[in-house]
Design goal:
Blueprint: H1 3-16, H2 19-41, H3 51-63, H4 69-92, H5 100-130, E1 143-148, E2 152-158, E3 168-170, E4 177-179, H6 182-185, E5 189-196, H7 212-253, H8 258-300, E6 320-333, E7 339-341, E8 344-346, E9 376-381, E10 393-398, E11 403-405, E12 409-415, E13 420-425, E14 430-436, E15 445-452, E16 455-461, E17 465-472, E18 475-483, E19 486-488, H9 499-508, H10 530-543, E20 547-550, E21 563-569, H11 574-577, E22 582-586, E23 591-593, H12 617-622, H13 627-634, H14 638-651
Antiparallel strand pairs: 1-2, 2-5, 3-4, 4-9, 5-6, 6-14, 7-8, 9-13, 10-11, 10-14, 12-13, 15-16, 15-20, 16-17, 17-18, 18-19, 20-21, 21-22, 22-23
Domain CASC1 C-terminal: 402-569
Pfam family, one: Casc1_N
Family: Belongs to the DNAI7 family.
């Protein structure tokens, strides 16, 4: 392959790949528009990216007192929305644009909102428990209250009768409850189960930023380009001003040539301005293109260091993931009750607020029986929108060490049909359910095929499930999930979202097909060179509107500097019935069509007869494709191509299959 043709191919690819910086530009414009809309709405909610507005919001809410549980739930919707927005800012902003001070500011705002929200739920629980005697059940004489909302469910039981025989607590119309020991059945206590459908207990995930070499290389490149832009512009401005000075001097000396000279100057100025604007625009796109490429490369880079060594019974959150939110289990001292006096309700308010009841007590010498403080049996319901492919593991929060632990929990049993998990707990505190984050990795196969104009279907098949994702413009949607060949209905189906919120939603539902930079430590993978992967995904995305791509078993047998996959032209649904796949091998700077087929007995890198090497996948498929298909590729929507590329980079199909 001669150098001249190679340069021509790369130049054409460069022009096609301009869709990536263009999509980033559109994303930035959309962000600015949403900020402007928020500003003109004046609805009282703060801009999460502005520290002053966030501090004012937090301070004003702190000052508000005596809010009922229902009022706190209503306010929590605003708070959770702000937390979500802050997390999206950290995830969606290109790493090069994120300054350390901004990361710290956003993370501090998230933590402050999380802590304040939990504090408010505590105060609201105290206000509710002061009225326990007035809300007592007529049959049992004890208070029982359930408050349900989309983000939070509260279960509260207050022991008013202190009946030693009443040791089984079950909340009406549910199987959720506790088996309590005699000592608790005869004490002034309340038991609270606050199920938050989100996890504000686990530590915040660190924000991915480029490595030092990566950052310095990209930063220098960007700085040089910016300087060049500035130099080019200032040079143009100087030229213009010199021309203006010369023009005015000539006009003063030779008044006869005024009209001619002015005409010339105007033409020169306008052409210089146009040229200056074109240079500036081209440089900006180049800088943006480099920034986008750096961010894409960051998505497929593997960490060289395994997460810190964890002692026995401590959960490694790089290997496992919490699912279904957090169950805050608390035994509380019953606060003084409201008393009616001459038409007034009088209540004693304790200065120290709601107090936790220590179980088991720190000293047990005064108690005669050896087993006076047995573990408490708890039955919880698994969140309906979460999928567990294996029995969930119950873990408890260690407030001192700031991590989840598996010890202190015994007799765990799970009923998958009823979605009930029962276990015995030594001491109360936050508990959650975990699943192996890589349970669906490596994938068994995958396919990406066009559905319509600027619309594709990505199918990923794993040991347990088949997940189908539709992608169009800048949106993604869960199309279907199959579990053991049966269709599973998910709340996410039919909901279109932008890529990052969509990926988070799938992970939170237990459908994790998105490796992290640490995943290679926990999964045996077919690791490919990051740059080769990125180039392959970018070019596959460019071609995805007219070509189908699929998994090939030969990708495992070629080395880490090359990738192998199936490809075919796909313009109509008829193509699906008789697929005529071609096998392509790509090394990032050279593409070839292989002589072997998927059914062949042995792997060979031999070139297919009557085909030749190319520098890009685009020019490789062009050799055996129709003009209609190539025209469809050239007219693809930039946001659509960018979304397909982001999904390919996030699933890393070529390394994790």
């Amino acid at each position: 392959m001669d150098l001249e043709r190679r340069n021509e191919e790369l130049e054409e690819l460069y022009l096609l790949e301009r869709c990536f910086p263009e999509a980033e530009k559109l994303k930035h414009e959309t962000k600015l528009l949403s900020q402007w809309k928020h500003y003109i709405q004046c609805d009282g909610s703060p801009d999460p990216s502005v520290a002053q507005e966030m501090n004012t919001f937090i301070s004003l809410w702190k000052e508000k007192t005596n809010e009922t549980f229902e009022e706190v739930i209503e306010k929590s919707k605003v708070v959770l929305n702000l937390i979500e927005k802050l997390k999206f800012i950290l995830l969606e902003t290109p790493p090069c644009d994120l300054q350390d001070k901004n990361i710290i500011q956003y993370q501090e705002s998230i933590l402050q909102l999380q802590d304040l929200l939990h504090l408010k739920f505590g105060v609201a629980t105290e206000i509710l428990l002061r009225q326990a005697s007035t809300l007592a059940d007529l049959d049992s004489g004890n208070m029982e209250k359930v408050i349900k909302d989309e983000n939070v469910t509260l279960y509260v039981w207050a022991n008013l009768k202190k009946n030693p025989r009443h040791r089984s607590v079950r909340f009406s119309e549910t199987q959720i409850g506790f088996e309590i020991p005699r000592i608790l059945a005869t004490s002034d206590i309340a038991i609270r189960l606050l199920h938050t459908h989100y996890d504000h207990v686990s530590a915040l995930h660190p924000v991915s930023t480029p490595s030092k070499e990566h950052t310095s290389a990209v930063t220098e490149l960007v700085k040089d380009d910016v300087k060049n832009v500035e130099k080019a512009i200032s040079k143009e401005v100087e030229e213009e001003s010199k021309q203006q000075e010369r023009g005015s001097h000539l006009i003063q000396e030779e008044e006869i040539k005024v009209e001619e000279e002015q005409g010339d100057i105007e033409v020169k100025m306008s052409s210089a301005e146009e040229e200056s604007e074109a240079i500036k625009c081209e440089r900006e796109m180049k800088v943006l293109s480099e920034t986008v490429s750096a961010a894409q490369l960051l998505l497929v880079e593997n960490s060289s260091e395994k997460p810190d060594f964890f002692e026995d019974n401590v959960v490694d959150l790089c290997q496992f993931t919490t699912l279904g939110g957090v169950y805050h289990l608390d035994i509380l001292e019953l606060p003084p009750q409201c008393k009616p006096v001459k038409g007034w309700m009088i209540v004693e308010i304790l200065k120290e607020g709601l107090q936790k009841y220590t179980y088991p007590p720190e000293t047990t010498e005064e108690f005669e029986t050896e087993n006076a403080f047995p573990p408490i049996e708890v039955t919880l319901e698994v969140h309906e929108n979460v999928i567990f492919f294996e029995d969930p593991v119950v873990v408890r929060w260690d407030a001192e060490g700031k991590h989840w632990r598996t010890d202190g929990i015994s007799n765990v049993s799970y009923k998958p049909k009823e979605r009930l998990v029962t276990f015995s707990l030594d001491t109360f505190g936050p508990v959650t359910l975990i699943q192996d984050a890589h349970i669906n990795m490596p994938y068994q196969s995958w396919e990406l095929r066009p559905l319509d104009v600027n619309k594709v279907l990505l199918t990923v098949t794993t040991v347990f499930t088949e997940i189908q994702i539709q992608i169009k413009e800048n949106l993604c949607m869960l199309s279907s999930i199959k579990l053991k060949d049966k269709k599973h209905i998910s709340i996410l189906e039919g909901t279109w979202m932008t890529p990052i919120p969509f990926i988070i939603a799938l992970k939170e539902a237990g459908l994790n097909i998105f490796p992290t930079r640490h995943s290679h430590f926990y999964v045996i993978i077919n690791n490919k060179v990051p740059l080769v992967e990125v180039k392959a995904y970018r070019q596959m995305a460019l071609l995805s509107s007219a070509f189908a791509f699929g998994w090939s078993k030969w990708n495992l047998l070629c080395n880490s500097t090359k990738v192998v996959f199936k490809v075919r032209e796909h313009l109509t649904e008829e193509c699906t019935e008789n697929p005529n796949w071609a096998l392509l091998m790509f090394s990032g700077d050279r593409a070839q069509r292989l002589k072997i087929k998927e059914e062949s007995e042995a792997f060979s890198e031999a070139l297919k007869e009557e085909t030749e090497f190319h520098s890009t996948l685009y020019h490789m498929v062009k050799d055996f494709s129709s003009e209609e298909a190539m025209e469809k590729v050239r007219s693809s929507n930039c946001q659509f191509v960018n979304s397909v590329c982001h999904m390919l980079l996030s699933t890393r199909l070529l390394s994790y299959s």
